[in-house]
Amino acid sequence: MLEIKNLHARIGDAEILKGVTLTIPDGEIHAIMGPNGAGKSTLSYVLSGRDGYEVTEGEVLFNGENILEMEPEDRAAAGMLLAFQYPVELPGVGNANFLRTSLNAIRRKRGEEELDAVAFLKLARAAVKQLAMKEDFLKRNVNVGFSGGEKKRNEMLQMAILKPHLAILDETDSGLDIDALKIVAEGVNTLRDEKFSALVITHYQRLLDHIVPDVVHVLAGGKIVRSGPASLALELEASGYAGLEAA
Amino acid sequence: MSTTTEATIQELAAQKYKYGFTTDILMEEFPKGLSADIVRLISAKKSEPEWLLEWRLKAYEAWLKMEEPEWARIHHPPIDYDALYYYAAPAKAVPKSLDEVDPELLKTYEKLGIPLNERAALAGVAVDAVFDSVSVATTFRDTLAKAGVIFCSISEAVKEHPELVRKYIGSVVPAGDNYFAALNSAVFSDGSFVFIPKGVKCPMELSTYFRINARNTGQFERTLIIAEEGASVSYLEGCTAPMRDENQLHAAVVELVALDDAKIKYSTVQNWYPGDSEGKGGIYNFVTKRGACRGKNSKISWTQVETGSAITWKYPSCILQGEGSVGEFYSVAVTNHFQQADTGTKMIHIGKNTSSTIISKGISAGKSNNTYRGLVKIMPGASGARNFTQCDSLLIGDQCGAHTVPYIENRNSSAKVEHEATTSKIAEDQLFYCRSRGLSEEDAVSLIVNGFCKDVLKELPMEFAVEAQKLLAVSLEGSVG
User: Fold this and answer.
1) Domain of A204: which CATH number?
2) Would the N or C end of chain B have less CB density within 10 A of its end CB?
3) Domain of A179?
4) Read out DSSP for B296-318?
C-alpha cells in the first residue's frame, strides 16, 4: 500500500508539487493524467528518490514505511520500481549482467539467496519469451542502440524479472506504436494480482485502453484536482485538461 | 550526491590499498647515490662479463648528459637521484630452488595472492618473483625447460645464456634512448628473461610479479622477451609496493622481439601504491616499453590496466618492421585522488601492409589528471599501412582532468589512419538508473566503469580479467559522493 500525504516538493526555487494526497491499496492500478508541467514526472522522481528534488512537506509511506528517508536502492529493495520515460543507456554493460546484478543486489538486501548464472538465465529466458522479445536482447548492452520501443520493452523485462510490489510507469507509452503499447500493457497486466499495485503516469488515454485502471487521478498545478473511475480518462480525452487547474 | 557518511568513505579509503604492508627481512643495500663506482659495484655483485659492465658505464655516461623529460603532463618535485639506493636485495644468498627461498619471502608473496609453491600456484601460470632489486624465485622452470622455453631472471640469463642476452639487450630500447631508459641501463639489477625458440607455443602463461619493499629504493628492472620464428607467448606482469609517505622511483625497461610469424602478448596489471587520498607518497612509475616486430607477419600486443602509482609515464610501443606485422595497444588507465597518468603508445609503421590498433580508456576521478599521448608514424616504405585509434575518456566528478594528445605523422599516401576520441562523464541519470534497480552507488560506478573498459578487459588473460575488474572497483572506491 502506497500512501502519499500532502506531498510538497520543489526543484531549486520552483515548487512543483503543492500538496499531493493519494492512496493506492495493494492490488489496484491507479492512473495519473494531466497536462504538461503538472508535476507528473516530478512525482515519479520524488517517489523513487532521485537527487535534486527537495521535499518540503508531507510524507510518503510504502507498506507503512517512510520511504522519503531511504536511498533509491533501498526503495528498490523494498519493492518499488520506476519504469523510466527515457531509459538510460549503459555502454559496455550487458543486459543480462545488469539484470542479474540488480536482482541479486535486491535479493541480498532482502536477505535472500543470490541466483547463480544458470538459475538466472533460466528465469531471464522465460521472461524474454513471455514478452515476445528476441533472446539476443539479453546479450545486447543496456539500451544501447535500442529503438524507442525496445527501450520500453526492456523496462518491462526488468519489471518481469525484478517483480516489484509497486511499479511506477512514467509516461512509458510516450513515443510507442500500438504494438509496443500492447506489449507494455501486457507486461503490467501479467504482474497484476492482489499484492501488486501500479501508478501509471500518462499523458494520453490510449494506454488505459490496455491497462484498465481502478482509479484515474488528474494532476494539475501540483495537486490532484479530480479522481474517478476508468471512464474519467475517456471524459478527459473528449474535453481536455482546460479549466481543471482552476478547479 | 549521496548520504554515504564521512566515516564510510574514510573506511573505504583505508582498506583501499591492501598490498601496503612491509616485509621485515634483512637486506643488503649499497651506499646511497649514483656514481660510476655504484654501477661497477652492481655489475661486480652479479659477476657480470666485461661487455655488460662497459654497456652499463656507457649508459651512465649518456645519462649524466641528459635531462629529465618535461613534455609530459605530470608535475612532481625534483627527484634527488643521490638520495636513492640503487641496489637492495634480501641478504641471504640467491636460492637455487624454491625450497631454499626465505620463508618470510614466501609468506609475502602468499599474502599478495601469488603463492610460489608450485602445488598451490595458479594452474598454468609460471611466476618469476622480483623483490626490490633481485629475482627471488621462478616457478615451473622444469616444465618450461621441457618445451625448450627459457624463463629465468635476467641475471641468470646473463650467466647461462650470455650470447642471447648480448644479441638482444638494448636492441629495441638502446641504452641512451631516453633519460629513464639510460638510468635503467646503467643500474638495472634484475628482471625477467624469456626465450621461446622457433615454432614453440609456450605451454603456460608466464608472469612476473614485481614487489618494491625497501625504503628509499629505486626499482630498476629490465625484461627481455624473444619469440623466434613461429613462436608464441603470453606474459603478464603485476606490481605492488608498501604504503610509504615518500615517493619511490620505478624506472623499468621492457624489450620485446618477435621474429617471423611470432606472437607476443604482454599484459600488465599495474597496482603500485598510488599515494594516499591527500596525494602523499606513491610510486613514480617511469617506464620504457617497446616491442620490435622484426619478422614477417609477427604480432605484438600490449594490454595494460594501470590503476596504481602516484605518477605513471609510460608508452608501450611497437616498431612494425616486418611486412604484414601487427601492433596492438589496449589500455585502461584509472586515476583517482591526486594521481597523474601520462600514458599511451607509439606505433611506428616501417614495413609494408603493417597494421596497428590502439584502444585507450582513461578514467579520471577525484583531483587526478589522466592524459593519453600517442604517436602513429607511417614511414615512406609502409605502403598499405593501417591504423585505427580509439581514445575514450570518462570523468567522475568535476575536479579531475582528461586530456588526449594524439600525434599522427603519415609519410605514405596509401596508408589509412583513423582516430576516434570521446570524452564523457558518468551521468547522474546513469547512476540513478542503476540505483533505482537496487545497485548501491559504488556498485553502479563499478558496473559503468567496467562497461566502459570492456573492449580492453576482454583482451586480458581470463585468470586476470576478473582480478582487473575488482581492481577497477577498488581503485574508484570513494570517488563518488
Assistant:
1) 3.40.50.300
2) N
3) 2-245
4) TT-EEEEEEEE---SEEEE--EE
Quick check: B439 and A51 CB within 8 A? no
| Contacts by residues B38-44 (CB-CB < 8 Å, ≥ 24 positions apart) | B38/B86, B38/B87, B38/B187, B39/B186, B39/B187, B41/B87, B42/B86, B42/B87, B42/B187, B42/B189
Give residue for cell 625450497: B99
Q: Give the pLDDT score at B2.
A: 36
Distance from CA of B442 to the nearest CA of A (A): 11
Query: Does the beta-carbon distance from A141 to B451 stay under 8 Å?
Result: yes
Complex ipTM more than 0.90, yes or no: yes
Q: What are phi and psi of B328, to 5 degrees?
A: -135, 145
A109–B432 C-beta distance less than 8 A: no
Contact flag A73-B438 (C-beta cutoff 8 Å):
yes
- How far is Cα A198 from Cα B72, in angstroms, rounded to an integer? 57
pLDDT tens, residue by residue, B422-478: 888 888 899 999 999 999 988 898 899 989 998 888 888 776 777 777 777 777 776
- In angstroms, rounded to a whole number, what is the distance separating the alpha carbons of residues B167 and B481? 54
What would the grid cell of residue B338 be? 591526486
Alpha carbon distance B320, B333 (integer Å): 24
CA distance B317 to chain A (A): 27
Give the CA-trace dihedral at B379, B382, B384, B387, to 10 degrees: -50
Is the Cβ–Cβ distance between B129 and B114 less than 8 Å?
yes
Contact A4, A39 (CB under 8 A): no
* Among candidates B3, B433, B441 on the partner chain, residue whose Cβ is nearest the Cβ of A84: B433
Query: Nearest to residue B332, comparing CAs of B350, B307, B313, B305?
Result: B305
Beta strands in B179-262 (DSSP E): 192-196, 205-211, 222-227, 232-240, 247-250, 253-258
Distance in angstroms between the alpha carbons of the first and the last residue of chain A: 28
CB proximity list for B167: less than 8 A, separation 6 or greater: none
CA B442 – CA B477 distance, rounded (Å): 7
Contacts of A50 in chain B (CB under 8 A): 432, 436
CA–CA separation, B204 vs B234, rounded Å? 8
Q: Would the CB atoms of B435 and A73 count as touching at under 8 Å?
A: yes
Phi, psi at residue B434, to the nearest 5°?
-65, -45
Mean pLDDT calculated for residue range B126-137: 73
The answer to whether A48 and A75 are in contact (CB under 8 A) is yes
* Cell numbers at B427, concatenated: 551521468
What domain count does chain A have? 1
Choosing among A44, A48, A90, which should be mutated to test the B contact, i.e. which has the most B CBs within 10 A? A90
The answer to whether B332 and B361 are in contact (CB under 8 A) is yes
Q: What is the pTM of this model?
A: 0.84
Distance, in angstroms, between B474 CA and closest chain A CA?
17
